[in-house]
Amino acid sequence: MTLDAAVHTESLTKRYGNVAAVNGVNLTIPQGVAFGYLGPNGAGKTTLIRMLLGLTPATSGRMWLLGEEIPKHRAVALAQVGAIVEEPRFYPYLTGLENLLIASAVRGPESKGRIKQTLDRVGLSEVGNSKVSTYSLGMRQRLGIARCLLNDPKLLVLDEPMNGLDPAGILEFRLLIRSLVDEGRTVVISSHLLDEVEKTCDAIAIVDHGQVVRQGTLAEVTGIHEGVVILEVNPVERALEILGGLTQVISVEVIARNELKVSLNQTTKISKLNQILVRAGVEVERLEPKKATLEDEFLAVTSNMGIK
Amino acid sequence: MALWFLVNMVRAEVLKLRKSKSLLITALLFSVGIVVIYYGVLEILHLSSPAAHGPAGGTANFNQATDLMLFIGAAGAILVGARAGSADVSTGVFRDQVSTGRSRLALFGVRILGGLVFYVPFLLVALAISLAVTYSLNQGLANPTTRDLETAIVAVLITNAFDFLLALGLATVTNSRSVTTGVLLVWTLFLQRLVSTITYLGNWRKLLPSEAENALYAHRGGAFGQSVEEAVITAVFVLIGWVVVMLSVGAIQISKMDA
Description:
heterodimer; A: alpha/beta; 4-stranded antiparallel sheet
């Protein structure tokens, strides 16, 4: 195993009867990064998190948090972890402050001293004395983050943390996550908001049908997909003829008058393509590399969108 | 450090229960409230017609007030136990508590202590009011003996604590306050008293908590007398047995359940 990994799993499996919610997952999350854990609904994201946090036992396989094996050294490991699973829940008839006071009692003496500081950090100081039942979903999400920070965790595991946040809240949240990572913490975000994960995270894993189908840095994962180039050419028929004869070209699609979408393999330089077309008498009026997005990759490797 | 956790987690439990207005009012009404109402009505009747109604103090009224604390107080204890046993899971906070790495059994243990710390003061206040009225408004009526007082205090505390623990254990299994309250109110206040009248069951009726509780306080002469003679030591073991079984089932459930 990787001792310095924030999270490491080996053949981790969770079965409910005949259904494998998590199926032999091998996952390594390095320390000090924002890590996106992506997958369609029902892919097994939350189940994996629940196993890591000791909320449900694994059927088989092994797992480590911050180098401590779970469940053997669960107490030691989880004392360094802050987590929100599914959605943050509180006693609705208590104030935000009282909820954190109760949460600090479970965590330890130092946690009590951090209550005010964590409320400040998530921007809830002014409503700390209001009952949680009056909070919006976004405010409860932020209170959940405050609760996570009470024990000054090395690792934060946040399940769909951007649910219910408005655009300004999402931006604040993104900045908060980056500031937590800058402090040396690891933040694992399970989410279906691909655009936000792409903007926030350094590395990702994509899970589908209980299995990790891609993992690595964002550049590594999106880079696996072939490059795409948008060309504006004249005459388009001559360009199609030339491109169709090139081995470097995977596919060509006419997307508008004189506009082609060309998929190239990784080794092909775009300048080379330009050179070939110009030498063949094709006027290249526009050449725009279109990099594969996380969404492209996600849709390509997950199966329940019917695209694979 | 262990003491810090114990003290602060029990405080947190009490805060959770104390801040629930509905529970606070119910606990107050079913303990202190019922005693205040009982003596209040007696004293008003006495003041309005001294010839027809005696004073609120004295042994007989004290015994009646103790019966109320045993009977109505039990309902209060069940409501508090059901709340203490199910609140964390029903609100979803239990998941957060478990994800801190804290022992599930420790979390269960502080529910017990927190609930008792919350409810017992209500009972002590109710007993104190009862004693104050008994002695101050007796107007020459006989006062309870020291043994009467000891028996009443022990019976009220034990019976209420028993019902609280039973409710807490069951609520941990059902994770539902309403189901627990409904089942136990029917069982404690009615069903087991009906079962105790089935003479065919013979000495098996000694296993009923109501019979054991009556044996602890055999001379109270309240609404429900003993159906079968039971030694105090047997009664103590019966009550302990029920508590051990219910709390064990609750502890197993909380250890094994998916949070």
